[in-house]
Write a structure and sequence with these properties.
Layout: H1 2-38, H2 45-59, H3 62-75, H4 80-93, H5 95-107, H6 111-124, H7 130-155, H8 163-170, H9 177-194, H10 197-209, H11 215-228, H12 230-237, H13 242-264, H14 266-276, H15 287-306, H16 310-320, H17 343-373, H18 379-412, H19 417-452, H20 459-485, H21 489-519, H22 524-553
Helix pairs in contact: 1-2, 1-7, 1-17, 2-4, 3-4, 3-12, 3-13, 3-17, 4-13, 4-15, 4-16, 5-10, 5-15, 6-7, 9-10, 9-11, 10-11, 11-13, 11-15, 12-13, 13-15, 13-16, 17-18, 17-19, 17-20, 18-19, 19-22, 20-21, 20-22, 21-22
Length: 555
Amino acid sequence: MISTILSLLGSLGMFLFGMKVMSEALQKLSGERMRGIMRTVAGNRFAGVLSGFSVTCLVQSSSATTVMIVSFVNAGLLTLAESIGMIMGANIGTTTTFWLVSFFGFKFSISAIALPMMGLALPLLFMRKPRLRDTGEFLMGFGLLFIGLMFLKDSVPDIKSNPEMLEFITDYTGHGIWSTLLFFVFGIVLTVVVQSSSVAGAITLTMAYKGWIDFPTACAITLGENIGTTITANLAALGGNVQAKRAARVHFIFNVLGVVWAIALFNQFVAFIEHIMPGQAADSSHMPLHMAAFHSLFNIANTALLIGFVPQLARLSEWMVKDRAEPARDHVAYESPLVPHTGELNLAEAERDVRRMGQITRELVTGFADLFESAPADPAALEARVKALKELEKESDRRAVETTAYLLRCTSSGVSDATMARVTGLLRVVAELEDVCDCGYRLVLLAERKHRKQRVLPDEANRQVREFSGLVLQFMDFYSQRLETGVSTADMEPAYQLENLIDAFRKNLRKASMQRMRASGEVIKAEMLYIDILNNMESIGNHSLNVLQALRHGT
């Protein structure tokens, strides 16, 4: 008995590990394509359904897709309404795994070629070209998945050799709606325990194939698995903001509403599947494909019924999850081992954070320029403006720490070489932008000291600071645009020209300042403050060029 249980657990482990390896390899092979798919949502619920379906087909995990959707809502990259269409599409996309397992694992025995496939994958794992290595990982994961399924089928006792098992299960069948509800709850518990609807589905398919359960019972369990799989997104949303919790709640509501009508029409729905599918569902060799058809038709019909009620679903989730004061959360929490990582897709969140840091750098330098030109006469008002700019600097520090940690987490789940290069570039960009923010805040303090200590500069020096500030802001606008669009080789030439111009500007202005100090020693304190301003502006120019170089090397 213990040996059988351990064999079952080992088979499930191999199946789940194969699914993980295959999913991560698919993400690396199609990461940029998936990010392109995400950009096609554009507020259209039907495009959202297609996007959710496509991404789930690519990663072969609805849990990974829904966690990614929740994290995008949390980051403000998707609205709640846009996320609902994608969640619907993810539910349809996950049915492809059922078809894959049903056909290759039961109808057509791929286990006979799984080992040769893994043998083919082995040399690919050591190739220099990233796409060949990723293809090797995909084939290795694909082979492991079906070898695990083969072991699972072999580990489950045949019902003919264990008639007492059938007698035990038949005690709970044949009781109409109560039997349906009982096995529905079993499906929920099974999915929550194994934390994967794919593994739960494989277990259900195996039980049906081995004759443990009949077709209606398998369908009831499958409905339960649709509810159980929502737990993953809700776990991820625990570390998110209100909008993330609402997106996760919509996933739950959508599946619950579908289950309600499916159970109400259960007998008719099951009979319809038996009618449209070839072969008899009672025949174990045909039952896996019947179950795949049931799973697909349920999710397609549920989407068709509810896609017209996206605004109502959004309002219902808003009613269930009230607005409340809570600390800002830029990312959902990934500390739980139950939450899948999707580094290829979550890179978009990190890019959003980097762009926000770029905005903060400009806000700080603009704040300095305004404060230098016209500071409030009231000391309290001056202190309030400096304090507001200090909060921006604190935000940049917080974002630098969190974004760095998040970028490192993105790489922990395995990403392509191109994405790794992008992450490396972004890590350097984050460090450079934090340095720009530090320079910007130092400029604010210098402007505040100028007014508080009543340091008087010549009109010419004040004009030069305005001109220098404009030149620095021009360079900052240049890199802020490239944070959105990326950096080409052609962009580097004007970048070098701007940096050289800033260096020459600082050099000439510093020389003029030294001449003024030699002419009149009384202005030395004001001129030293002026030189500090010039040095910080030149440092911003250097960091700005470093930002563009890092972006260029990361593409």
